[in-house]
Amino acid sequence: MKISYNQLKTLIDFEHNPQKLGEILTDTGLEVEAIEKVDAVKGGLEGLVVGLVVSCEKHPDADKLSLTKVDIGGEALLEIVCGAPNVAAEQKVIVALVGATLYPTSGESFTIKKSKIRGAVSEGMLCAEDEIGLGQSHAGILVLDTDLPLGTPISKYFNLEPDYVIEIGLTPNRADAASHLGVARDIKAVSDSPILLPDVSGFSLGNSASSIGLFVEDTNACPRFCGLEIKDIEVKESPEWLKRFLSTIGVNSINNIVDITNYVCHYLGQPMHIFDADAISGKQVTVKCPDAGTDLVTLDGTTRKLSGTDLAICNVDGPMAIAGVFGGLNSGVKATTKNIFLEVAYFNPVSVRKTASKHGLKTDASFRYERGTDPNMPPFAIKFAANLILELAGGKVCDKMFDIYPAPISNFEIDLKIKNIDRLLGKKLGEELILSILEKLDIQLISKSDGQMKVSVPPYRVDVTREADVVEEILRIYGFENIELSDNLSSDFIAEFPEKDPETLKTKLSDALAANGFNEIQSLSIVKPADNNWLNQSDTVVKLLNPLSEELSEMRQSILFSGLNALVYNINRRNKDLKFFEFGRTYTKNTIEGQTKIKENRVLGVWLSGNINSESWMQKSSAVSYHHLFEVVSLVLGLMKIKKIDTNETSNQAFAYGLEYIVRNKILVKFGLVNPNLAVKADLKQAAYYAEFDWDLLCKLYTSESKFVEIPKYPEVRRDLSLVLSKTIKFDQIKKVAFSVEKKLLKSVNVFDVYQGEKLPDNQKSYSVSFILQDEEKTLNDQQIDKTMQKLMGAFENEVGAVIRK
Predict the structure, then answer these.
(1) pLDDT by residue (tens digit) across 725-735?
(2) Which of 160, 237, 424, 563 supports an S-S bond with 471, CB 3.0-4.6 Å?
(3) Ranges of each domain in the chain
(4) Which of 716, 711, 712, 710 shows the shortest CA–CA distance to 774?
(5) Class of the 2-39+162-191 domain?
(6) Are 213-404 and 412-482 equal in CATH topology?
(7) Residue 304 has pLDDT above 60, yes or no
């Protein structure tokens, strides 16, 4: 929403400059997103002042030039060479000072410089109207008739002071502030300055008989409707002040009548529409919902079919406008219009919102109506608009003004407790200050007793309907920055932030796994006893008291067998390349001191079997391996942003080999090759890899925070070592040793080749390992690199018995 700084000052008197005003408005909840200077003419006439020609003589070397001395109120007179035929002593003129940039009506801009013209010094320029962009005449310099002091900026003489457009990011709840008046109300609340509404007391009805009849059939969708007929107006161009205002807030000028409606809408927050009275067939205006399928050609030339629930303003032949949304093409004001009918109404916000959404229309009117306007504004707004029309277009007001308002909308009455105000604010303000702030917000006190009060909120504040809303109003005017932080912070509830929603995380991982070729399976938590017997943990089995059958009589202790059964089912149907995942539950029973407790565990299971990719002309098929499963585990942990993990080889009998990742002394995930003995029992005839995550622990460890670090400015260095080791040494051991020796410079360790063969004993292997070194503060030199590598080699020799091949 755009606000004109100059127009705002016509509604309320304040001393703040635009920047300070922006800070004040932001503090009250009207966030100012931008402030931009808008010149009335290009360049704003900066560097142009009122001057007096003290003397004027002919140039000795040029017949058409004059040598003048000009007083601009400074210590010395300016010597200026002028070529205008009408320049003379004792004239008040426009002086462009050295450094000023002029923007002529036609041609390129130019900057005034101190120069010599035919040997005479010239310290400025005396200006004609076309030279400063104010007209077309170049007959001579502009001679001023003014009492303004010498040196006064010429923009003040022409009343062309710059304006500032203040752009406010209006939140949906602040419908009351969608106008200059609404913004002025907030300024009033923090400054004590009164609102200066336009004076409409001079408005009066005329003697000309009104020819228009008005009827409102749907008073629910249109609770209030004001109408007025004005005859013998003249449609023409708007005056400069009105065009300048509309241009400042980004609205195109159309003509004086249409521009007035836009002015009233943005100035007071009250949309209005003006009809050509001679285009109202039957001389009757009816507010109703026309039959479904009725056509209306709107102002944009589009034919729209009304739905039967769209409120419209109609004449006897059909709709003329979609109420509160868009006008019709045939009934609008044209250049030939002489008689007009003004409509200013309060429409039901829900009705307007539904209609605007249905037709895909978003207009200045619908923007305000669908959020809620002031039901008390239409009578004032129609008188204000009528006075402007009489001033700018002439005409005669007819003898009748309609105001159909069968069920007046009352103020909101809200009960408040002082202790609740203090609690929600976090500070005691005292009743006197609270009442003072409420009064500035037009919230009136109805009654007060025993720490309670009842207040009346005007209906234009559609967002203030509860006690908490009133407290928010008090707080934004008192100032958030004026609430001190307590030494002991507390809240009405305890929660872990940010909130972790397991279902959201589940969706996140499901999408990622599906994107990598996995299919989700869902299996029963009730299994046959044989599935649990494979784990040899009969003492922890949870048995059903009333099983449906002997085959389904126990709760599963592991999700592993559910997936193996799904693999077998698919393989038996010639679908052998399989990637599955499942979010499921397992159940175990524990007996402690004679008390039996059943624990439900949430887990995520992942299965891989067959080939990792199908055979094609571009690539050969290859069987899934442990490393493919490792990538999937890394994907899940990466998405959950879990990094600090301890690693152990798994001893779980479900795996032939594999790893366990441990966090906080709990197993987060175990993964590896499914034990072939279990695979045979499940009738699975091909290798399968399996990972099982503790879902509850995974969710607990998840963090939504993202950490960013600056990209290193200095280059990294790579060094390689060939290590001959015992076959029992794992790469993870090498990695741990390396990082225990060098924590600052060492960034990564990677094995890029493994050799076992004829040249080495049977119990040994060779690792080719790369090391990435980097100093984030400076470039590494050879001495530092060699020293680091010597430390690493020594550690490998001493701690893992490595032989360094050189």
Answers:
(1) 998 888 888 98
(2) 424
(3) 2-39+162-191, 42-157, 213-404, 412-482, 502-701, 717-805
(4) 716
(5) alpha beta
(6) no
(7) yes
Do 615 and 642 touch, CB atoms closer than 8 A? no
As a whole number of angstroms, the distance between CA 530 and CA 527 comes to 8
Checking phi first, is residue 664 left (phi over 0); if not, alpha (psi -120 to 50) or beta?
left
Cα 493 from Cα 449, distance rounded (Å): 30
Q: Are 705 and 745 in contact (CB under 8 A)?
A: no
Distances (CA, A) of 637 to 216, 503, 750: 65, 17, 20
H-only helix segments in 708-780:
731-741
Q: At CA 193, angle to CA 187 and CA 198, rounded to 5?
A: 90
Q: Alpha-carbon distance 431 to 455, whole Å?
A: 13
Distance CA 274, CA 333 (A): 7
Q: Phi, psi (5° rounding) for residue 33?
A: -95, -25
Question: Is 85 exposed, middle or buried (CB count within 10 Å of its CB: 0-12, 13-18, 19+)?
Answer: exposed
Beta carbons of 388 and 420 less than 8 angstroms apart: no
Do the beta carbons of residue 337 and residue 357 sit within 8 Å?
no
Helix (H) / strand (E) containing 719: strand 717-726
- Looking at residue 805, what is its pLDDT? 82
Fold of the 412-482 domain: Phenylalanyl-tRNA Synthetase; Chain B, domain 1 (3.30.56)
Q: Cα–Cα distances in Å, from 569 out to 79, 609, 682?
A: 103, 13, 11
- Among 192, 153, 172, 150, smallest CA distance to 31 is for 172
Question: H-helix or E-strand containing 638?
Answer: helix 626-639
DSSP assignment of 578-634 equals EEEEEEEEEEEEEEETTEEEEEEEEEEEEEEESBSS---SSS---B--HHHHHHHHH
| Number of CB atoms found within 10 A of residue 727's CB | 12
DSSP state of 616: -
Q: Which fold would CATH assign to domain 717-805? A: Alpha-Beta Plaits (3.30.70)
- Single-letter code of the amino acid located at 804: I
Rg (the chain; Cα; Å): 42
As given in the structure block, the two tokens for residue 380 are: 């004032």
Q: CA-CA distance, 613 to 619, in Å (whole number)? A: 9
Angle at the Cα of 194 from the Cα atoms of 188 and 197, rounded to 5 degrees = 105
Q: Report the top-level CATH class of 42-157.
A: mainly beta
Classify 502-701 by CATH class: alpha beta
Instruction: Kindly list the distances between the CA atom of residue 794 and the CA atoms of 736, 775, 800, in Å, as whole numbers in the listed order.
Output: 14, 22, 10
pLDDT, mean of residues 351-368 = 92
Digit-coded pLDDT (tens) for 539-551: 788 888 877 777 7
Q: Class of 213-404 per CATH?
A: alpha beta
Contact (CB, 8 A) for 438 and 391: no
Torsion angle, alpha carbons of 97, 99, 101, 104, to 10: 40
